[in-house]
Fold each of these.
Amino acid sequence: MDFWIVQKQMIIIFVMIVIGVYLYKKKHLSNESSKQLSWIIVNITNPITLLCAALKEEEKVSDLEVGIAFLCFFVMYAILIVCAYVIPVLLGIERSERYSYRMLTIFGNVGFIGIPFASAVLGTGSLIFVSLCGLSFNLIVYTYGAASLKKTASEQNPDDVQDKAFTIRNVINSGTVLAAVTVIVYLADVRVPDVVGTTLTYIANCTTFMSMLILGVSVAQMVPKEVLTKWKLYVFVLIRQVLVPIMIIFILRPFVKNGLILSTVAVMAAMPAGNLPLMMAKQYGVREEMISAGIILTTVLSIFTIPAVMYFL
């Protein structure tokens, strides 16, 4: 394990977050513009990022391996969803804040951190499995994640005239549609003209920077002690970022013979909290302070937690 690989990714992340903090402090970014950027990321650039991954994949794996990987990620997210309800209870989190811990538990940063980390540590052969994890992530975040945050928004803002009630129509959005298209594109080995591929790539490349700017806006509005003094978050990090991924490894190991699939699942399970729930919380008008604090702390401590998990592979 080359610790510099992890540290390099953390440095890149923090530089972009600092830019977001600077722009907010200088009034070049506001809460309103941050919310508008969040909508663009959630509904356009993030789904297109997954589509680009399928279009760029050259070396195909067998249909059986694709099926096994999908099943592994289904098991992984099923375990994370269960843990998302158990961990807040174990930590004695107030009911009004448990939605934040659920978001932090289920949705890791499998994109910006996960893709380059897996490529550097596990090799480029792992990227197809990372893409499959991204598909699973999007299907869950745009269904369960959206439903949970919409319900929370209704509870926090009962007088809000906006319709935040979740219906089945919410499942049919750009995220789930493009996730399904990505599966079809990959399995059918679809090729698109260069002009289309290049256009999609340009759009997808905006995702990382814009999402980090938005995180920077949230950081700029926080007092450091709001993150550093929350002792329950440290216990949460130990449980979610170390113990849970190790548990997933031991559950899957007897059934998964492909070492690369198992390693990819473990790495994805060990990723720090992702930014997309924060974007969606802003979009729906949900209080996101605890989500922001969790993203910051899990990202900082991932320098230590990810290598700890990989020790058990």
Amino acid sequence: MSDIVAFNSVADEAAPQAQTDRVIAGPRGRKPRRALSGRNIMIYGTLVVVALYYLLPLYVMVITSLKGMPEIRLGNIFAPPVEITFEPWVKAWASACTGLNCDGLSRGFWNSVRITVPSTLVSIAIASVNGYALANWRFKGAELFFTILIVGAFIPYQVMIYPIVIVLREMGVYGTLTGLILVHTIFGMPILTLLFRNYFAGLPEELFKAARVDGAGFWTIYFKIMLPMSLPIFVVAMILQVTGIWNDFLFGVVFTRPEYYPMTVQLNNIVNSVQGVKEYNVNMAATILTGAVPLFVYFVSGRLFVRGIAAGAVKG
């Protein structure tokens, strides 16, 4: 017992000496990086320059849309407005001429909403079921079906315009919003099916097997297990579809009539109008209004977009 007490007393005396030796020797391990190292300055400097490069056109558009035409004629496009006016925005929305009609972008905006919402919902619903079936229910010919679907996604749209026109005409929906919604829904499904298939293939297979053992069927597993775990990929699909459909010009001008033109076609008619004075402030305001919806959707759900695209694009 005395030996143990003696050993403890020696250890207690040696501990302060060991701590003193460590302090004298200094800290060990890698040195912390300096916040203003040359590497960091180069990285952040490059990022700032690139960000300014892409933000400069937006800055010019915004300040030009807030100027009156007399101030714009002075020629300094980078100068902030001396007197801010929202008249160009009001005119771009409500009274700018888009051909024979002079009701601005308002009619095109509601046409775009009526096109985008059903096209996005229907294409995502069908593609999610397709991806779920291809990832978890190995039916005969699944790989061949998936290959044909993906090959179809890479066929140029321009090659298929004339056949689609004939098909829509025979169906009696050419020149209507229904026909354009059908086109956007079909063309959006291949890439969305790929995203959903890869995402569902990356989910734990044990969940699917356990549900099958418990007697769950196709739709029960889809609605009660897969959907609650798939919010990120649904956000990715929504952003891709909303951005692609809202910004589409080619399908809108080919498959619809003037009264059903989407917002992008209306914008083209405003910007390319050659009647009277070229109102650059109205053109800039109309351009910002047209791109506001996709930007809003992305900024609201941007974090989920990054998570979903990382999960759905590299797995499977």
Amino acid sequence: MFLKPKKAVIRRNRTIKGDIKGQGELDLRGKVNGTIEVDILTIGRKGYVKGDVIADCVRIMGYVQGNIQARKIIVEHGAHVEGELSYEQLSVASQADLSAKLTPRPLLKLLSERQPVEQVLANLQAVA
């Protein structure tokens, strides 16, 4: 039997100032001021990132101000993105607010060796 990998969550009432670099999936509902480097990143409707994002797959429903490098980027209805997007696949829903330079890049080499994202978050101090 296969175990489903854990998903790390940053809750709505949390603000983190600093970089998050880890292996695994991160569900961001709070705020991050810094670089995020994970395998899969979901930015919820109230999620906010001010900094760069590096991931295999990024799903954005909230706000991002910074550069994103990913194999797959999904910008959902109501999302707001400012910066530069480097990607293999890009999906932008209607009524998404996208103010970005788009750079398609095949076969991006993105991720380096990292520890699990849960361990990274355990070592960070939340601001609020």
